[in-house]
Design goal:
single chain, about 250 residues, alpha/beta, Rossmann fold, DNA polymerase, domain 1, 2 domains, 6-stranded parallel sheet, about 50% helix, globular, binds xylulose-1,5-bisphosphate, binds magnesium ion
Length: about 250
């Protein structure tokens, strides 16, 4: 029997396929600062190995060969570029082109009906989350979440476990009592490092990554109802307890 009391969702790529909107917002922000940087899809897929927009920008900058004074000036500009990118991203989200990935809404409704709490653990900027939830799932949905852990509330972003630990602390739950849902290998690493049973639902940007660390891999959340997820969680917990006792 599963003792799961919460589902903790990642955001980008898990709730919706948002990375194209992030990519476009980055490129629009670069243009507005007169920078000739263009992050095309293959480059962006590679840059996704660094989570967090500001960290991603710093990592990109470190790849460029630049005179020291210019590097310093651009490094100092990162917070402003990122602030602009965040505005542009929210505008794109508000324009309404995004939809939830299959099964997301149904799973949330099933969990609410079963008295299982919902939470979020994401590296994206905290202020991006409410507009996204409102846009893809409906105006009332931000209120469905008992914990929203995001962005700069931790120093070490995914793959570190910190953001999941913040969510668990807010929920006042041990890791064994929750399930994490992720779309990327880095996210799975983060959730597993926090001790969570972790379901991977790879998306368009992450399909080719290595999900060996995940407890369960699904094409989408539509593939298994809540009951099935709880059964898999219960079986894994029993196995872990037996393993610990040997
Ligand atoms: C995915 C990310 C995010 C976004 C950018 O986060 O890496 O950093 O690409 O967001 P998750 P910001 O899958 O954990 O939600 O620019 O707001 O940092
Ligand atoms: Mg993600």
């Amino acid at each position: 029997m599963s003792r799961c009391r919460a589902l903790i969702f990642d955001v980008d790529g898990t709730l919706a396929d948002t990375e194209e909107a992030h990519r476009r917002a980055f490129n629009q922000a670069f243009a507005s600062f007169g920078l000739e940087w263009v992050w095309d899809p293959p480059l962006y897929a590679d840059l996704l190995r660094v989570t967090g927009g500001k960290e991603r920008l710093a990592s990109y900058l470190s790849r460029l060969s630049l005179p020291q004074a210019q590097r310093r000036r651009l490094n100092d500009l990162i917070p402003r570029i990122h602030e602009r990118k965040t505005q542009l991203y929210r505008d794109l989200v508000a324009s309404g082109g995004l939809s939830p990935r299959p099964g997301v809404r149904k799973l949330m409704l099933q969990a609410r009906e079963a008295g299982i709490r919902l939470a979020i653990a994401s590296t994206t900027t905290l202020g991006n989350i409410e507009p996204l939830l409102t846009s893809i799932l409906g105006r009332e949905t931000p209120g469905w979440f008992a914990a929203i852990a995001a962005g700069d509330s931790v120093i070490n972003k995914k793959p570190a476990p910190d953001i999941y630990n913040v969510a668990l602390k807010t929920l006042n739950l041990d890791a064994s009592r929750a399930i994490a849902i992720e779309d990327s290998a880095i996210g799975v690493q983060s959730a597993r490092a926090a001790g969570l049973f972790t379901i991977a639902t790879p998306g368009s940007w992450t399909r080719d990554q290595d999900f060996v660390a995940a407890d369960l891999i699904l094409g989408s959340l539509d593939e298994l109802p809540l009951e099935g997820l709880l059964r898999a969680h219960g079986a894994a917990q029993t196995q872990r307890t037996e393993h610990a006792e040997v």
